[in-house]
Design brief:
The chain is an alpha/beta fold and 457 residues long. The protein contains 17 helices and 17 strands. 44% of the residues lie in helices and 16% in strands.
Amino acid sequence: MTLAAAPARLSTAASSFEADFVALLRGSATTDAAIEQRVRAILADVQQRGDTAVLEYTALFDGLRAPSLAALELTQADFAAAFDAIPAAQREALQAAAARVRSYHAAQKRACGESWSYRDADGTLLGQKVTPLDCVGIYVPGGKAAYPSSLLMNAIPAHVAGVQEIILVVPTPVRGSLATGGAGGQAAPGPGERNALVLAAAHVAGVTRAYTIGGAQAVAALAYGTQTLPRVDKITGPGNAYVACAKRHVFGTVGIDMIAGPSEILVLADGSTPPDWVAMDLFSQAEHDELAQSILLCPDAAYLDAVQHAIDRLLPTMPRAAIIAKSLNDRGALILTRDMPEACTISNRIAPEHLELSCQDPQRWEPLLRHAGAIFLGAYTSESLGDYCAGANHVLPTGGTARFSSPLGVYDFQKRSSLVEVSAAGAQTLGAIAAELAQGEGLQAHAQAAQMRLQPR
């Protein structure tokens, strides 16, 4: 059977546009009650039984049996051996990508991640102290796919921020287990499906400890701590529905980066970019999974036709053609706008994860774009470069949350403490103000604590 992909065709001039547009953006993923119930049980079990529960779930879900959690720890020697074993071209690409990611986040730290203070006229000091988190946990998916780029994007900003303990959890299921798409069954001894490029990325990125565990049980172990794993301050990194659900439930006990939804790309084009380039950029997110969303906005109807023809021609050449086709058919769209300013307005309503401004003069339109996880300027700036090696972080807000949230960065691995040092002279002014307001709130201890300092001892 020949696969075909026909993204929805919308026009802002059509009377039905608003209803069609709202339907297009409506998320198709729903919270599965069975997943919620199972995750809550796993979290509670790991919190109560620690290592023992983690080992049982790792055997059940990954088919990986071990006598202790310590036996599932990956060492720095494992990282180094994997780095030495991968092809030279992969080593060079990994190091080049890591260097660019590190450089970007170092600049980010200089711009917004330093402590500051000042003294006012009466000598009172005010400021902010910026300190790194002590310990973070990074989740990197394993099993059906491996994501060394995700490891770089999570571990390097943590390392740049100054985090001393970066703990990696990555499932390494035994082939044929539930995590690799098999039927599961009796757990088997052995190391499981370790990915050399992921371990090599850990070597390059500065991971300090790592364990071959995954799923909700790994999130629970990081959040609550076990006999072997220390409790972390924050958990970052993507995962499946069980991982996302577990992160949502442990938030408050620990920090999390975000609850990531399906991948998204919005291409805002003026018709000057080769249609094949845009079609492939739409494919680049659609191939992630069937729920991914790829949208093209353009004021040129003939160009939309050309992109559709490119989709038809290129789709059969793609190894993940079935996934791409379902994603584009279910959630994709080619939208005809009246002009580029209107396209920018619609883009702001979507607030996409990835926004490609694929036009001849991107600097002209970029100031109109207020909501996006990352903005890729110009025809040569493929979103896929941002995924791997441009340098900016690829962990981005999805599902319209770019309206109020930001990409993962150094600031996610830091915390801020306010600094206040009131001088004797300052206490005379501030004490009177504080006492007056405290009395108005009926908090007499507050008021008296301020008043006691009004006269020199």
